[in-house]
Fold:
Amino acid sequence: MRWPWGMSGYQWTVVFAAWLGWGFDIIDALLFNYVAANCIPTLLGLELGSEAAAMATKQWVAAMASVLLIGWAVGGIFFGWLADKIGRSRTLLLTIVLYSLGTALCAAAPNVQFLVFCRILSSLGIGGEWAAGASMVSEVVPAHKRANAGALLYTSAPFGLVCAALINKLVTGYWLPDHPEYSWRVVFLFGLLPALAAAAMRMVLKEPEAFKQEGDHNPRLSELFSPQLFPITRSGFLMAVTALVSWWTLSTFQAPLSGALAKQEALALGLGAKQAAALTTSWQLIATVCFSLGGGIGTLLTVPFANRFGRKTMFAVYYSGSALAIMATFGLPLAPIWRIYMQFFLGLTVFGVFGSFTYYLPELFPTRLRATGSGFCYNVGRVITAFGPYLVSTVSKGGVEKMESTLFWVFLVPFFGVCALPWVIETNVPRAVLDPD
Structure:
């Protein structure tokens, strides 16, 4: 049978397995954000919809987001190292099962402390899955198709974003709309789906030949800072941290900003409480879909840019576009609904650039350090972004104008990425330090 791109059926199976793993971990990462308003007050014994419940929810959402980001960073670095130690397929399956169980156990949480513990388990697995999956795809797919497969792999992220919103809508909006005190537990149970997928993957996945032929399976994190590899590590880190800070700042603000804009619109139209709540839910979903759709398209567009003009030029285009999109979205005098629609252009640039990391970072490092280096560069920046949720919690109290003026200045982050381009290493040319396997 003739498969697309000249790849074999097994190579496509590996890409699909990694695609599912990344998509599912995005779902598991975001489910909490959609149910927090009911979950947190219930576990704290507060009346749903009360002022005390709203305040507690904001505080705990910020705390949980920081826990997720720090756990994500730790898991990404540790499981990246483990993937170079014991293998890509084993680590991929292990991390999927870990974040699945962590999310599903949230459904049984008797208190907030247990919920934090479950979120830590999930975050460790979520962080580790990417490095193992990206490294496996890089080593199984033909070298000339790595960019294509890598970008395709990341399209599962916007898919995961939309699925998380739809799962919440299905359970809380259609199945159990009158039972907010426990509908959130049912939402968390959907976290078991990735574990079922992992069970199926276990029967077909095997270790890449490049990994099996590599004699040294004793990676050391310190090697990333050796004179030979430090320029590579610096290049990957600078590009990844720019994307991470931009994405997490904007995506964390997305729900509260779209909700605040909807309430502002509802007040202007004189809508009742029930209609205002429906408008809020609708605008938040529209914002998510626009951001995700733009992200999916932007992800795929990294391939022609990267292959034709090189990785360095591709980063220049995306980070310049990100800065312009941020300034336009939050600086122009737009009607509220158009700020929602502008999420598409934020997704196209800020979200889209992530499609490059699934091929750029594995290209930088030799086989024996591929997952370790990729996992470190891609995840260590999350420690920096962990402070972002508290910024959101503080700024959102100032209303729509305060949020918009704050988000406008986020353009400085991708501008930093453009300024860092002289230190970026181009991988679209033969390099002795790159492993040509």
Q: What stands out?
A: Confidence is low (pLDDT under 50) at residues 430-437.
